[in-house]
Amino acid sequence: MSAAPGGPAEKAGIMSGDVILAIDDTSAQDMDIYDAADRLQGPEGSSIDLTILRSVKEAIKKLRENNVKAFVLDLRNNSGGLFPEGIEIAKIWMDKGVIVYICDSRGVRDIYEADGASTVAASEPLVVLVNKGTASASEILAGALKDNKRAVVYGEPTYGKGKIQSVFALSDGSGLAVTVARYETPARTDIDKVGVTPDRPLPASFPTDEDGFCSCLRDPASCNLNAARLFVRS
Protein backbone atom coordinates (compact mmCIF):
# COMPACT_ATOMS: atom_id res chain seq x y z
CA MET A 1 0.00 0.00 0.00
CA SER A 2 1.12 3.56 -0.63
CA ALA A 3 -0.29 6.75 0.87
CA ALA A 4 -0.92 9.81 -1.33
CA PRO A 5 1.30 12.71 -0.21
CA GLY A 6 -0.72 15.11 1.93
CA GLY A 7 -3.77 12.85 1.88
CA PRO A 8 -5.81 11.71 4.88
CA ALA A 9 -4.03 8.35 5.05
CA GLU A 10 -0.60 9.96 5.24
CA LYS A 11 -1.85 12.44 7.84
CA ALA A 12 -3.11 9.50 9.92
CA GLY A 13 0.36 7.96 9.88
CA ILE A 14 0.01 5.44 7.05
CA MET A 15 3.31 4.85 5.25
CA SER A 16 4.13 3.48 1.82
CA GLY A 17 4.86 -0.22 2.15
CA ASP A 18 2.36 -0.79 4.96
CA VAL A 19 0.24 -3.92 4.60
CA ILE A 20 -3.48 -3.79 5.50
CA LEU A 21 -4.36 -6.74 7.73
CA ALA A 22 -7.92 -5.71 8.61
CA ILE A 23 -10.46 -2.99 7.78
CA ASP A 24 -12.85 -2.17 10.62
CA ASP A 25 -12.00 -5.50 12.32
CA THR A 26 -12.70 -7.47 9.10
CA SER A 27 -9.68 -9.49 7.97
CA ALA A 28 -8.32 -8.36 4.61
CA GLN A 29 -6.66 -11.71 3.93
CA ASP A 30 -9.29 -12.93 1.45
CA MET A 31 -10.40 -9.52 0.12
CA ASP A 32 -9.78 -8.68 -3.50
CA ILE A 33 -8.64 -5.18 -4.40
CA TYR A 34 -12.16 -4.04 -5.33
CA ASP A 35 -13.71 -5.17 -2.04
CA ALA A 36 -10.91 -3.48 -0.11
CA ALA A 37 -11.31 -0.27 -2.11
CA ASP A 38 -15.06 -0.19 -1.43
CA ARG A 39 -14.46 -0.57 2.30
CA LEU A 40 -11.78 2.13 2.32
CA GLN A 41 -13.99 4.71 0.62
CA GLY A 42 -16.63 6.76 2.37
CA PRO A 43 -18.24 10.19 2.64
CA GLU A 44 -16.10 13.18 3.55
CA GLY A 45 -15.43 13.29 7.28
CA SER A 46 -16.06 9.59 7.87
CA SER A 47 -13.41 7.35 9.40
CA ILE A 48 -12.32 3.71 9.41
CA ASP A 49 -10.07 1.57 11.62
CA LEU A 50 -7.15 -0.10 9.85
CA THR A 51 -4.91 -2.83 11.23
CA ILE A 52 -1.52 -2.32 9.60
CA LEU A 53 1.55 -4.54 9.35
CA ARG A 54 4.75 -2.54 9.27
CA SER A 55 8.27 -3.88 9.49
CA VAL A 56 9.09 -3.24 13.14
CA LYS A 57 12.41 -4.98 12.65
CA GLU A 58 13.35 -2.61 9.83
CA ALA A 59 12.31 0.40 11.92
CA ILE A 60 14.51 -0.75 14.82
CA LYS A 61 17.43 -1.25 12.44
CA LYS A 62 17.10 2.30 11.06
CA LEU A 63 16.84 3.77 14.56
CA ARG A 64 20.02 1.97 15.59
CA GLU A 65 21.78 3.42 12.56
CA ASN A 66 20.85 6.83 14.01
CA ASN A 67 22.52 5.87 17.31
CA VAL A 68 19.27 5.27 19.21
CA LYS A 69 20.06 3.44 22.47
CA ALA A 70 16.59 3.07 24.01
CA PHE A 71 13.01 2.72 22.77
CA VAL A 72 9.51 3.90 23.64
CA LEU A 73 6.61 1.76 22.40
CA ASP A 74 3.39 3.80 22.38
CA LEU A 75 0.34 1.52 22.63
CA ARG A 76 -2.07 4.21 23.79
CA ASN A 77 -5.44 4.03 22.00
CA ASN A 78 -4.27 0.90 20.17
CA SER A 79 -7.29 -1.41 20.02
CA GLY A 80 -5.13 -4.45 19.40
CA GLY A 81 -5.64 -5.81 15.92
CA LEU A 82 -4.88 -9.46 15.26
CA PHE A 83 -3.70 -11.82 18.00
CA PRO A 84 -0.89 -13.50 15.97
CA GLU A 85 0.68 -10.14 15.14
CA GLY A 86 0.73 -9.17 18.82
CA ILE A 87 2.58 -12.40 19.59
CA GLU A 88 5.11 -11.80 16.81
CA ILE A 89 5.80 -8.24 17.99
CA ALA A 90 6.39 -9.52 21.54
CA LYS A 91 8.98 -11.94 20.13
CA ILE A 92 10.86 -9.02 18.59
CA TRP A 93 11.45 -7.52 22.05
CA MET A 94 11.83 -10.76 24.05
CA ASP A 95 14.38 -13.55 23.64
CA LYS A 96 12.75 -15.86 26.19
CA GLY A 97 9.75 -16.18 28.47
CA VAL A 98 6.00 -16.75 28.33
CA ILE A 99 4.06 -14.20 26.28
CA VAL A 100 0.52 -15.28 27.16
CA TYR A 101 -1.47 -18.22 28.49
CA ILE A 102 -4.74 -19.29 26.87
CA CYS A 103 -6.94 -20.79 29.58
CA ASP A 104 -10.35 -22.46 29.56
CA SER A 105 -12.50 -24.12 32.21
CA ARG A 106 -10.00 -26.98 32.51
CA GLY A 107 -6.95 -24.77 32.96
CA VAL A 108 -4.12 -23.79 30.63
CA ARG A 109 -4.92 -24.77 27.03
CA ASP A 110 -2.07 -23.13 25.13
CA ILE A 111 1.15 -21.34 26.02
CA TYR A 112 2.80 -18.84 23.68
CA GLU A 113 6.49 -18.28 24.37
CA ALA A 114 9.46 -16.38 22.95
CA ASP A 115 12.34 -18.60 21.85
CA GLY A 116 14.79 -16.01 20.54
CA ALA A 117 14.34 -16.91 16.87
CA SER A 118 12.61 -13.61 16.01
CA THR A 119 14.37 -11.39 18.55
CA VAL A 120 15.80 -8.08 17.35
CA ALA A 121 15.91 -5.87 20.45
CA ALA A 122 15.95 -7.87 23.67
CA SER A 123 18.49 -5.79 25.59
CA GLU A 124 17.96 -2.07 24.96
CA PRO A 125 15.97 -0.12 27.58
CA LEU A 126 12.26 -0.10 26.69
CA VAL A 127 9.29 1.94 27.90
CA VAL A 128 5.70 1.03 26.98
CA LEU A 129 2.89 3.60 27.13
CA VAL A 130 -0.69 2.40 27.72
CA ASN A 131 -4.10 3.83 28.53
CA LYS A 132 -7.74 2.75 28.69
CA GLY A 133 -7.77 2.61 24.88
CA THR A 134 -5.09 -0.11 24.86
CA ALA A 135 -7.01 -3.33 24.23
CA SER A 136 -6.88 -6.97 23.19
CA ALA A 137 -3.60 -7.95 21.47
CA SER A 138 -1.99 -4.70 22.64
CA GLU A 139 -2.80 -5.64 26.24
CA ILE A 140 -1.23 -9.05 25.69
CA LEU A 141 1.93 -7.36 24.39
CA ALA A 142 2.06 -4.88 27.28
CA GLY A 143 1.42 -7.61 29.85
CA ALA A 144 4.14 -9.83 28.41
CA LEU A 145 6.74 -7.07 28.41
CA LYS A 146 5.81 -6.01 31.94
CA ASP A 147 5.64 -9.44 33.57
CA ASN A 148 8.92 -10.53 31.99
CA LYS A 149 10.51 -7.30 33.25
CA ARG A 150 11.46 -6.47 29.68
CA ALA A 151 9.91 -2.98 29.82
CA VAL A 152 8.69 -0.32 32.20
CA VAL A 153 4.99 0.32 31.56
CA TYR A 154 3.65 3.87 32.01
CA GLY A 155 0.08 5.17 31.84
CA GLU A 156 -3.25 3.99 33.18
CA PRO A 157 -4.91 0.55 33.39
CA THR A 158 -5.72 -0.84 29.96
CA TYR A 159 -9.18 -1.67 28.60
CA GLY A 160 -9.46 -5.21 29.94
CA LYS A 161 -10.49 -7.34 26.95
CA GLY A 162 -9.43 -10.82 28.01
CA LYS A 163 -12.20 -13.14 26.83
CA ILE A 164 -12.06 -15.35 23.74
CA GLN A 165 -15.51 -15.89 22.26
CA SER A 166 -17.00 -18.09 19.54
CA VAL A 167 -20.25 -17.25 17.76
CA PHE A 168 -22.70 -20.10 17.18
CA ALA A 169 -25.43 -19.77 14.55
CA LEU A 170 -29.02 -20.24 15.71
CA SER A 171 -31.94 -21.56 13.66
CA ASP A 172 -33.60 -18.14 13.43
CA GLY A 173 -30.54 -16.67 11.75
CA SER A 174 -29.18 -14.95 14.83
CA GLY A 175 -25.98 -15.87 16.64
CA LEU A 176 -24.95 -16.64 20.19
CA ALA A 177 -21.56 -15.46 21.45
CA VAL A 178 -20.10 -17.88 23.99
CA THR A 179 -16.91 -17.34 25.99
CA VAL A 180 -14.67 -20.35 25.35
CA ALA A 181 -11.36 -19.22 26.85
CA ARG A 182 -9.49 -16.29 28.35
CA TYR A 183 -6.08 -14.64 28.18
CA GLU A 184 -3.76 -14.62 31.19
CA THR A 185 -0.49 -12.70 31.37
CA PRO A 186 2.80 -14.47 32.21
CA ALA A 187 2.16 -13.64 35.89
CA ARG A 188 -1.20 -15.48 35.55
CA THR A 189 -3.24 -12.28 35.72
CA ASP A 190 -6.71 -12.49 34.15
CA ILE A 191 -6.95 -9.10 32.45
CA ASP A 192 -10.65 -9.24 31.54
CA LYS A 193 -12.44 -6.09 32.77
CA VAL A 194 -9.33 -5.23 34.81
CA GLY A 195 -6.64 -4.63 32.24
CA VAL A 196 -2.89 -4.41 32.63
CA THR A 197 -1.83 -2.19 35.52
CA PRO A 198 1.14 0.03 34.59
CA ASP A 199 4.30 0.23 36.67
CA ARG A 200 3.96 4.02 36.87
CA PRO A 201 1.32 6.61 36.00
CA LEU A 202 1.93 9.12 33.25
CA PRO A 203 1.75 12.81 34.17
CA ALA A 204 -1.56 14.37 33.14
CA SER A 205 0.40 16.80 30.97
CA PHE A 206 1.90 14.04 28.83
CA PRO A 207 0.65 14.61 25.26
CA THR A 208 -0.83 12.08 22.86
CA ASP A 209 -0.08 13.96 19.62
CA GLU A 210 3.15 13.02 17.86
CA ASP A 211 4.84 16.44 18.02
CA GLY A 212 4.10 16.93 21.70
CA PHE A 213 5.06 13.35 22.48
CA CYS A 214 8.45 13.74 20.80
CA SER A 215 9.03 17.08 22.56
CA CYS A 216 8.49 15.39 25.91
CA LEU A 217 11.00 12.68 25.07
CA ARG A 218 13.57 15.28 24.06
CA ASP A 219 12.97 17.25 27.28
CA PRO A 220 11.38 14.95 29.91
CA ALA A 221 11.51 17.61 32.62
CA SER A 222 9.05 19.75 30.64
CA CYS A 223 6.46 16.99 31.11
CA ASN A 224 7.30 16.28 34.76
CA LEU A 225 9.29 13.14 33.95
CA ASN A 226 12.57 12.17 35.60
CA ALA A 227 14.92 11.53 32.68
CA ALA A 228 17.41 9.64 34.84
CA ARG A 229 14.73 7.19 36.01
CA LEU A 230 12.60 7.00 32.88
CA PHE A 231 13.69 3.44 32.04
CA VAL A 232 14.05 2.27 35.67
CA ARG A 233 11.27 0.09 37.08
CA SER A 234 11.60 1.05 40.77
Structure write-up:
- The protein is α+β, with helices and mostly antiparallel strands and 234 residues long.
- Helix content is 23%, strand content 24%.
- A hairpin with a 5-residue loop joins strand 9 and strand 10 (175-184).
- The strands form three sheets. A four-stranded antiparallel sheet has the order 6-5-10-9. It has a three-stranded antiparallel sheet with strand order 2-1-3, covered by helices on one side. The protein has a three-stranded parallel sheet with strand order 4-7-8, covered by helices on one side.
- The chain starts with 7 loop residues before the first helix and ends in a 16-residue tail after the last helix.
- It folds into two domains: 1-54, PDZ domain (Pdz3 Domain); 55-229, 2-enoyl-CoA Hydratase, Chain A, domain 1 (Alpha-Beta Complex), CATH 3.90.226.
- Helix 4 (83-93) packs parallel to helix 5 (137-147).
Provide a quick synopsis of the model.
The chain is an alpha+beta fold.
Task: Give the SSE layout.
Elements: H1 8-11, E1 19-23, E2 26-27, H2 33-40, E3 50-53, H3 56-65, E4 71-74, H4 83-93, E5 97-104, E6 107-114, E7 126-130, H5 137-147, E8 152-155, E9 163-169, E10 175-184, H6 210-218
Parallel strand pairs: 4-7, 7-8
Antiparallel strand pairs: 1-2, 1-3, 5-6, 5-10, 9-10
Helix pairs in contact: 4-5
Pfam families: PDZ, Peptidase_S41
InterPro entries: ClpP/crotonase-like_dom_sf, PDZ, PDZ_sf, Peptidase_S41A, Tail-specific_protease
GO molecular function, one term: serine-type peptidase activity
